[in-house]
Amino acid sequence: MPLALQNLRFFDGADPKHLQALEEGSRLKRYGASEILAYEEDDLSRVYFLLSGEAKFYKVDRFDNEVFLYSLESQALLTNIGSLDCDTISCYSNIEFLTPSEVVSFDLTLFKSCVRSDMALLINLVNMLADQKQLVECTVNMGMIFDVTAKVAKMLSEHLDLFNSLKKQEISYRLNIQPATLSRVLAKFT
Fold it and tell me: Which terminus, N or C, of the chain has the lesser number of Cβ atoms within 10 Å?
């Protein structure tokens, strides 16, 4: 299996003969922290996978404030493929890199052809898209259903290592709350 595809778990179990054309059309690119991969409403003709690093997904509200949705780390599918019948992929959020990152991309037409011809890849794609759907669902729940205290409690309960590794400013950004509010909630917990 070619090098770029060997580094991506998505291609585990795939028939190497199906991957030849896909590998030839692949592009490997490095991004620095704060570089943008795509903006909301962009139409993409390539499928992007994050090999290493971290990318955040966010939207911009009517007051030009960033609304953090979620972040993805290594081995993640960065583009949301709505259907194997579409000729472009529409972005529903902005994608910005939080750390220096390495991304491999594939021509959408070749990617769809490869996935259609290999059952292992089709299953892997369905699983990755289900994971993306779960992230979006959690984002909606956090934003619409949870109050501030529940947001902080959920992060402490489910992502304690991440909580401990980030500064308060970054935690409040990821929870879409003000830093002072985070301090008040933590003081209440204490």
Answer: C
